[in-house]
Specification:
heterodimer, A: about 140 residues, alpha/beta, Transcription Regulator spoIIAA, five-stranded mixed beta sheet, about 45% helix, B: about 70% helix
């Protein structure tokens, strides 16, 4: 599906990628079309390489629909980041979305999911052995 | 368009019914008593006292005669509904209600036999007038009773549905959902909704769903349960199912559920212990903890 703003070349996509210590936090705040999903994947991979991130959180709390292409893309993205040494956690899946995904047989495979950003960060800390470089959290 | 014969019949009824009614009115006391005796004799309405039976019998009798007289079942319908409301909570069964109405029909028919047995042709005409009316009355009372029962059942179903799936927090991030009673498709949907929104509201990590009180589930509900477990995982919460009956276990195996994805523990206690383990809680007796400190 061609998108309306394609003529502008690289139009901004509805995802903000923030850097938090050695993690990247990507908040999706509007439904992405197929083209935007591809660009999001490339951008995220680029930043993981650039910042040598060890964990990625993708926050999809704003999405009230998730189609099969979207969930497959997320799963692929998680596998790609894994190959680059960053663990991906998907957070904020809405209850209705979660049940619809299961009913339609969309599978995120063994990708980790958490309720919210906070839980996602705790899980990443567990999995990466405390990725944040702050000495305070280290000493605890 | 009525045929002459039918017209004759209906005028005949109109003439005979008043006579019939007059007879039933005049022998009211005796017939009513006989009816009440036969009700007790057939051990119907065993949950009611003889006095109650007698007073209800009186009202039914009067209503009955009134229907014969006016041909309108409206008042009787109203009374039957009212009566049903009163006797259903006391455990009166359908066969008892149908039984007593048929008994009254028989008692009255017998008394008509007795009165008109000398004139067979007249008796026949009287019965022609009496029987349709009597059958309509029996019908009305039984239908009212069954309708009332169905209304009560519907009401109870609604109230069960309302209070059926509580979501309880027992520890930080640990919820339990005790489920009691039959789990049909609608309740299963409600369960999913409550569980998933409960996870969000309480920020739960682990949910123990206790189905000790569920005797059996069909295949679609079993599938629904498994899907709910999967959906919970997408929301970052693990689900532990406890108290599976052997029947439910068989159903789950028969539909080929991937059991590696479903965490089940024998009983609720075990489920809560497992959940505490997952959440990193340790529960110790205070005395033991003191001893260890010393």
């Amino acid at each position: 599906m061609p998108t309306g703003n394609r003529s502008e070349g690289e139009a901004p996509i509805s995802v903000s990628i923030l850097r938090q210590g050695s993690y990247l936090i990507a908040s999706v705040y509007a439904a992405l079309d197929d083209d935007e999903l591809g660009r999001f994947q490339r951008e995220l991979i680029r930043q993981i390489m650039a910042f040598r991130s060890r964990g990625v959180i993708i926050d999809v709390a704003a999405l009230d629909v998730m189609d099969s292409f979207g969930s497959r893309s997320l799963r692929d993205l998680a596998h790609m980041t894994r190959l680059q040494g960053a663990i991906t956690v998907i957070v904020g899946i809405h209850p209705d979305v979660a049940f619809a995904m299961v009913q339609l047989g969309m599978d995120l495979g063994n990708v980790r999911t958490e309720l919210g950003l906070e839980e996602g960060l705790v899980l990443l800390d567990d999995l990466t052995g405390g990725g944040r470089l702050s000495p305070v959290s280290r000493s605890r | 368009m009525e045929s002459p014969a039918e017209q004759d019949a209906s005028t005949d009824h109109e003439q005979l019914l008043p006579e019939l009614v007059a007879h039933l009115r005049s022998s009211r006391t005796q017939l009513r008593q006989e009816w009440a005796n036969r009700i007790t004799g057939a051990s119907l309405l065993s949950s009611m006292t003889p006095q109650e039976i007698f007073s209800e019998a009186t009202s039914v009798y009067d209503n009955y005669v009134e229907v014969l007289e006016t041909g309108s079942v409206e008042a009787l319908q109203h009374y039957a509904q009212n009566l049903s409301e009163r006797i259903i909570p006391r455990g009166v069964e359908t066969h008892e209600v149908v039984g007593i109405v048929l008994l009254l029909r028989d008692v009255l028919a017998r008394s008509l036999f007795e009165k008109y047995h000398s004139d067979f042709a007249l008796l026949n005409r009287i019965l022609d007038a009496y029987e349709p009316a009597a059958n309509r009355i029996a019908n009305t009372v039984s239908v009212s009773f069954v309708q009332e029962r169905e209304r009560v059942i519907r009401q109870q179903q609604d109230s069960i549905r309302e209070l059926s799936t509580p979501v309880l927090q027992v520890r930080e991030r640990l919820l339990i959902l005790p489920i009691i009673g039959v789990l049909d498709a609608q309740r299963a949907r409600q369960l999913t909704e409550q569980l998933l929104s409960g996870i969000r509201a309480h920020r739960a990590k682990v949910v123990v769903v206790d189905i000790t009180g569920v005797p059996d589930v069909d295949v679609s509900v079993a599938n629904h349960l498994v899907q709910t477990v999967d959906a919970s995982r997408l929301m970052g919460a693990g689900v532990i199912i406890t108290g599976l009956s052997s029947k439910i276990a068989q159903t789950l195996v028969r539909i080929g559920v991937d059991l590696s994805k479903v965490n089940t523990v024998g009983d609720l206690q075990g489920g809560i212990e497992e959940a505490e383990r997952l959440l990193g809680f340790t529960v110790r007796r205070a005395a033991d903890a003191d001893r260890q400190q010393e």
